[in-house]
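Progress report, Aim 2. The chain analyzed during this reporting quarter is listed below.
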Amino acid sequence: MSNLLYTIAVILIILWAIGYFAYSAGAIIHILLVIAVIAIILRLIQGKRI
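Predicted structure tokens for the chain:
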């Protein structure tokens, strides 16, 4: 489960970066960033390293 969260967070950060630099999509870009940051924080809080 933690690997899945980490993977989703990385994908969301990449999508945010593409959206931020390629074209302006409004608030959706920032929502993706917030979701990615939350996923990373959850992974850090869980502290399970593989």
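The helical segments are 2-22, 27-46. The two ends are 11 Å apart (CA to CA). These observations will guide the mutagenesis work planned for the next reporting period.
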